[in-house]
UniProtKB/TrEMBL annotation:
Name of protein: DNA-entry nuclease (Competence-specific nuclease)
Lineage per the UniProt record: Bacteria, Bacillati, Bacillota, Bacilli, Lactobacillales
Domain of life where this protein originates: Bacteria
Organism in which the protein naturally occurs: Fructilactobacillus florum 8D
Keywords: Signal
GO terms assigned for molecular function: hydrolase activity; metal ion binding; nucleic acid binding
Domain DNA/RNA non-specific endonuclease/pyrophosphatase/phosphodiesterase as annotated: residue spans: 71-247
Length: 288
């Protein structure tokens, strides 16, 4: 009996450790891969937008590459530190319906991300501000999380967080990014958990991203996408090394098809209403 007792104890210990580990697997999110270290990212760095082609491309049949469907017990956003050039890096959000929100007044945006040059230009007879402060994780999906991305009841969203902002063209932000953000919002509103990862894609030491890699998947896998959005603006050509732009009539960029553009229209209607309410109550004007 003395000979088998240690053996039984070892087996019991192994089983206990296994069960404990299995239990943790169901509650702690699996760490997302680092997009900047992938072959996909390296390939995207080398791509240049060709005028007249689609404003975004679908990658890997719209199946995410660096995040996986999983459940989690609490929401959070993993922000990466700014890099050596002070540029925003990947943000990975673990979101629930608790993170959806809108407020009657948004704080003014002061931070200027790298490559920020927003002097208005006349494009096709219209006065255009070339760029916006693009949010990696949409402001309306960051409620009840603090600036560090940790749970904080009552927190009003990430509006001027340097780790969540990059210089994005007005077109890419308002006509393309919104399509994907709305898909995330719709899934959250339906009660799904969503993992949403956004990666600005820079070439070398460029201060402005050439594009943004967006991936998302719901915990049940029903909603998912994997896309690369070109950071371009109709009628303007950008020097991504500096972020400066010049008028170029040859730079044509088609608006995404109406079938998906309707989602962006719904968001724009909300944004217009929000601006009216904000201006009426606070006399504050905002840029996206």
């Amino acid at each position: 009996m003395k000979k088998i007792t240690p053996w039984l104890a070892a087996v019991a210990t192994s089983v206990t450790l296994f069960l404990g580990f299995s239990g943790l697997q169901g509650t702690k999110p699996v760490q997302a891969a680092v997009p900047e270290n992938t072959t996909t990212y390296q390939n995207l760095q080398q791509q240049d937008y060709q005028p007249g082609t689609a404003a975004y491309q679908v990658l890997n049949n719209d199946q995410p590459e660096t995040i996986t469907a999983q459940s989690f017990t609490s929401s959070r956003i993993d922000y990466h530190d700014l890099d050596q050039y002070n540029r925003a890096q990947t943000a990975t959000a673990y979101l629930t319906s608790n993170n959806l929100g809108k407020s009657e007044g948004r704080a003014a945006q002061i931070f200027k991300p790298t490559g920020w040059h927003n002097q208005p230009k006349q494009v096709n007879g219209e006065r255009v501000f070339p760029v916006n402060r693009g949010h990696l994780i949409a402001y309306t999906c960051t409620f009840n999380l603090n600036q560090a991305g940790q749970p904080e009841p009552g927190a009003l969203g990430s509006i001027d967080n340097p780790k969540n902002l990059f210089t994005q063209t007005a077109f890419s932000n308002q006509k393309v990014m919104t399509i994907n953000e709305q898909a995330v919002r719709d899934a959250l509103a339906a009660g799904k958990q969503v993992i949403y990862q956004v990666t600005p894609v820079y070439q070398g030491s460029d201060l402005m991203a050439k594009g943004v890699w967006v991936q998302a998947i719901s915990s049940d896998g029903a909603m998912h996408f994997n896309r690369y959005l070109y950071n371009v603006q109709p009628g303007l050509r950008f020097d991504y090394q500096t972020g400066r732009s010049q008028i170029d009539a040859a730079m044509t960029v088609p608006t995404p098809p109406s079938a998906v553009h309707r989602q962006a229209t719904r968001l724009n209607l909300f944004s217009s209403h929000h601006r009216r309410v904000t201006n009426r109550h606070h006399r504050v004007r905002h840029q996206f």
